[in-house]
């Protein structure tokens, strides 16, 4: 306990040092022949589904889809689509561009009332589409998706939720004229991810569905239906602390789907208990190799901006964390939502413990001869943290090294960083790694994650091919960032009304409670 009663979780006198060897130094000598039917399957949450700017819509450039493209397997890689009204639950980029088209780059004071009315009409159309309109029609398919991720889901959801469960959770929606937002958006999204046909398949969880794909073996590899399985679960066991700017530690009911929504951070012992159940199920999936991703430090995400200077020279923490559009001059801890430095440090300490538990599961599996690997995404984000480390050399731990940007990103002006995205009305002036919700990556940000996973896959011996070719690609296998930049509208053409003050986003959040409601997936 700290002096103010906050929980502080550490593993010794210093924070956790990231793992750089995905094998953990444990030699495994698997033997197999041929190639499994399913070259890539991913289980996870919003980060794996391809969520950005408060909506899932660009699933064709999620990091698993990027990897499938580089594998030369994109024509076979199955993933859901959410094309109506910018996706689920609410596309901030589409919303800002709509306001810009109607009111220009600057919203004058006499335009605020009609703009607010227009914004509510826009939100009402989105809500109607997904709750009562064409968005309620769920595609019927018997083929299980390869990207099985669902935004907002945590460890317990991966174990328990199925299409049948999601249908039962979706009650008759209310047409709220004041606070329009799609109800049960994550359940609606899941119905496009998880199998619904034949009827008996509708009781499969994420992990069950992956296991079914693993069981689809053939003569080329009778032992494995999946070549590479990626498991990236756990961020939502801590993320709501920075989305809500509120720390509520898990307690009795943390493993109850009906009660767990009350908590914003899982105690490490609760996280480890649920992780163990997930790992036991993953062990039964017939995959040649499994890559586990650690949980990033959620306090680096720019949705929670550090106020003023660090608490002390060499500290990684700011005295307060608040919304990015609240300036240092305007911030008032008596009335503005915030976390304290002690709370941020405690959340990071809990995440460190989560990652020790994930590492232990990978180590145990490798000791048992399983070809499991660890990608330390926490260390990756720490190396990209602008205000925490890049701009403050005194705060850098001994292990820290700057992340080498891919040449295509290094050639951009400015080079993408982890600050909140901003423009001068015509071009991007800051940020670039995080989308407009301040939590999820841009398309090029997802490309960096894809590149790191490809590096681990090559370490495991996975072969990558050019499209329609049987000749393996030589090393290094590099993500085509030129292609991703062309896809990334936030990088090459951000909304003109997204100025450095983020005033329009602040207005929308104050008047519409927009960001909190859009990102509050788990309720």
Summarize this entry quickly.
The chain is of the alpha/beta class and 523 residues long. It is 35% helix and 8% strand. 50% of the residues are buried.
Average pLDDT, rounded to a whole number, is 92
Strands in their spatial order, largest beta sheet: 1-5-6-10
**Oligomerization category of the chains in this entry:** single chain
Query: In percent, how much strand structure appears in the residues?
Result: 5-15%
How many strands, what sense, and barrel or not for the largest sheet?
Answer: 4 strands, parallel
Would you count the extended β strands for me? 12
Shape: globular
* Cα end-to-end separation: 29 Å
Extract low-pLDDT stretches.
Answer: 1-6, 8-13
Q: By helix and strand content, what is the structural category?
A: alpha/beta
Helix content percent band: 25-40%
Number of DSSP helical runs: 19
The radius of gyration computed from the alpha-carbon positions, rounded to a whole number of angstroms, is 22 Å
Structure in words:
- This protein is an alpha/beta fold and 523 residues long.
- It is built from 19 helices and 12 strands.
- The protein has a 4-stranded parallel β-sheet, sandwiched between helices.
- Strand 11 and strand 12 form a beta hairpin.
- Helix 2 packs across helix 15 and helix 10 packs parallel to helix 11.
- It starts with 37 loop residues before the first strand and ends with a helix.
- The N terminus is likely disordered.
């Amino acid at each position: 306990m700290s002096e103010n009663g906050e929980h502080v979780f550490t593993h010794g006198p210093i924070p956790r040092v990231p793992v750089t060897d995905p094998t953990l130094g444990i030699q495994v000598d698997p033997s197999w022949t041929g190639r499994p039917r399913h070259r890539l399957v991913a289980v996870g949450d919003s980060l794996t589904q391809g969520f950005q700017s408060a909506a899932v819509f660009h699933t064709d450039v999620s990091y698993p889809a990027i990897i499938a493209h580089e594998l030369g397997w994109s024509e076979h890689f199955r993933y859901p689509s959410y094309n109506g009204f910018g996706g689920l639950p609410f596309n901030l980029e589409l919303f800002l561009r709509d306001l810009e088209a109607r009111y220009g780059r600057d919203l004058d004071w006499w335009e605020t009332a009609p703009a607010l009315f227009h914004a509510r009409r826009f939100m009402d159309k989105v809500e109607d589409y997904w709750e009562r309109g064409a968005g309620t029609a769920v595609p019927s398919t018997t083929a299980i998706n390869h990207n099985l991720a669902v935004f907002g889901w945590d460890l317990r959801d991966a174990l328990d939720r199925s299409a049948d469960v999601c249908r039962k959770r979706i009650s008759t929606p209310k047409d709220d004229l004041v606070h329009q937002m799609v109800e049960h958006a994550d359940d609606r999204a899941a119905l496009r991810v998880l199998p619904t046909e034949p009827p008996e398949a509708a009781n499969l969880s994420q992990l069950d569905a992956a296991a079914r794909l693993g069981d689809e073996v053939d003569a080329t590899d009778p032992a494995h239906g999946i070549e590479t399985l990626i498991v990236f679960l756990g961020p939502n066991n801590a993320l709501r602390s920075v989305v809500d700017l509120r720390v509520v530690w898990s307690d009795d009911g943390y493993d109850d789907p009906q009660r767990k929504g009350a908590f914003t951070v899982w105690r490490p012992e609760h996280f480890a208990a649920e992780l163990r159940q997930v790992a036991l199920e993953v062990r039964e999936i017939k995959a040649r190799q499994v890559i586990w991703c650690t949980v990033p430090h959620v306090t680096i995400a720019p949705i929670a901006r550090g106020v003023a200077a660090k608490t002390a020279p060499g500290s990684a923490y700011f005295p307060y964390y608040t919304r990015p559009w609240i300036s240092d001059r305007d911030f008032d801890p008596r009335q503005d939502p915030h976390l304290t430095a002690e709370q941020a440090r405690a959340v990071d300490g809990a995440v460190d413990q989560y990652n020790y538990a994930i590492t232990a599961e990978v180590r145990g599996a490798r000791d048992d001869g399983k070809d499991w690997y660890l990608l330390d995404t926490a260390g990756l984000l720490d190396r990209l943290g602008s205000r925490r480390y890049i701009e403050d050399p005194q705060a850098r731990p001994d292990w820290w090294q700057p992340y080498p940007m891919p040449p295509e990103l290094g050639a951009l002006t400015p080079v993408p960083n982890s600050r909140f995205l901003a423009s001068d009305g015509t071009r991007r002036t800051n940020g670039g790694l995080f989308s407009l919700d301040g939590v999820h990556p841009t398309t090029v940000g997802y490309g960096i994650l894809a590149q790191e996973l490809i590096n681990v896959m090559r370490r495991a011996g996975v072969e990558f091919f050019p499209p329609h070719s049987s000749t393996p690609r030589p090393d290094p296998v590099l993500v085509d960032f030129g292609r991703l930049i062309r896809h990334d509208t936030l990088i090459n053409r951000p909304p003109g009304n997204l100025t450095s003050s983020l005033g329009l986003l602040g207005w929308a959040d104050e008047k519409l409670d927009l960001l909190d409601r859009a990102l509050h997936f788990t309720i």
